[in-house]
Amino acid sequence: MKKRYFLSPLFLFFLFKQIQTTNANKKMNQLNSSFKIADLIAKRLNGKLSLEEGHFLDEWKYENKENLDLYHKLSKNPETNYFKNEEQLEEVKKEEIWHKINTNLQEKKTRRIRTEFLKYAASIIVIGISTFFLINSIPEKPTNRIAHISPGKNQALLMRDKGETIILDEFVKLKEDGLEINNTEGHLVYKNDNKTSTQEKITYNSIIIPKGGEYNLTLSDGTKIWLNSNSKLRYPTKFSGKERLVELEGEAFFDVSKNKDFPFVVKMNDFQIKVLGTSFNVNAYNDEKEIITTLVEGRVEVKDQLRNQKETLLPNEQFCINKHNGDFKKTHVDTEIYTAWKNGRLVFQNERLEDIMIRLSRWYNVEVFFLNNESKNLRFTGDLTRYEDFNNVLEMIGFTNKVKFSIKNRSVLIEKLN
Predict the structure, then answer these.
(1) Which residue spans traverse the membrane (predicted)?
(2) What integer pLDDT is reported at residue 52 of this predicted model?
(3) What's the domain count of the chain?
(4) Which residues does the chain have with pLDDT short of 50?
(5) DSSP class of 342
């Protein structure tokens, strides 16, 4: 069930404050827009956003990186940050609050609006609304808080057949023989232009996702692919022959376009998955000993070509095979746990800390070091947003008082507490 938030007018004003303050150097006519964005974010949190309002909010969100970062910050659980900041102000005198507000306001009209609002509010409301400004204006005292590390984002590298390399950090529009290739908002699309192809040779592209990245891809046959951090996919720009063959390193979720006469094959060195049309997740990182296939719907055939063994999977089944000795097991699982990453969530259920940290290291682009082996086998369960600040993720694990984390640059040191 989707979590609902009760957002009072006071809290809605707090959302507006953060949006408007982020653009404090802009003109007064942007105040109305800031109020509107705050209202739309509140509606989205409560599941009351209309389709038209959703389009408007998404346009604002992707207008620039500053808006996108702010949107993620406010959408996680804004009330948590709000009340945490409020607690930090309990010791601050009201006279200091008024002084900070007056000295930080940059525009006279904006000052008058805030003053009129605060003039008739109760003292606790004064403290609450002032939170954002005070936290950012009062010098921070040195603490032992973990250094800030941001989550991953949409980023990828496209390598074309002739050696051309394109960084997919901005809009790209390409034309190839019988194809249009473009990308928007972290999604690369290959689309047939309905023209007759004059090229007989198959051309291949590769998309590479670095640590701390993710990207979506739609192939020329309509197959949709979600690619996780530290992954690579090699694929033909147009399919021909008896099968649709792609090669994977890393993790991807496939929603394969149905074609009973044209099987879709995912190849991972000596292993392959063969389907006609289905949805499934594959975890096949080179630095892990197992290849894990999780079937959401349809039917797939997993084959170990080196040992000439194969297995058929049905929905909600998972197949794990050891790359070194061929040992395998098939189990019935909750597929949501293994596919949640593509929907912006990090889910782990009774999972070893070492395995959790491997996943986190790819997404947050950090190096992990265990100071003792005992901590590797501690088990944890959790479900949080994939765009959570790294500090919050480690704090959640640290609440168990089982382990201690320390960070230097992008290295995470972990030790078991007695």
Answers:
(1) 117-135
(2) 72
(3) 3
(4) 1-13, 23-32, 77-95, 97-102, 104-146
(5) G
Which residues form the domain of 389?
344-416
Looking at 306, 339, 372, which one is the last position of a domain? 339
Token digits of residue 229: 């951090």
Give the chain's radius of gyration (CA, Å).
25
User: Residue 313 and residue 121: Cα distance in Å, rounded?
Assistant: 62
126 dihedral zone (left: phi>0; alpha: psi -120 to 50; beta):
alpha
Q: Rounded to 5 degrees, what are φ and ψ at 187?
A: -135, 115
Burial of residue 372, with CB atoms counted within 10 A of its CB: 0-12 exposed, 13-18 middle, 19 or more buried = exposed
Residue 138's identity, in one-letter code, is I
Judge whether 209 and 229 are in contact, CB under 8 Å: yes
Residues 320 and 348 in one domain: no
**CATH number of the domain to which 217 belongs:** 2.60.120.1440
Q: What is the pLDDT of residues 325-356, one digit of tens each?
A: 889 999 999 999 999 999 999 999 999 999 99
Q: CA nearest 416: which of 383, 376, 359, 382? A: 376
Q: Between 108-119 and 94-104, two packed helices, what is the crossing angle to 10 degrees?
A: 160
pLDDT confidence of residue 19: 53
* AA identity, residue 230: N
Query: Do 367 and 317 reside in the same domain of the chain?
Result: no
CA dihedral 404, 410, 411, 413 (to 10 degrees): 0
How many of the other CB atoms lie within 10 Å of CB of 248? 26
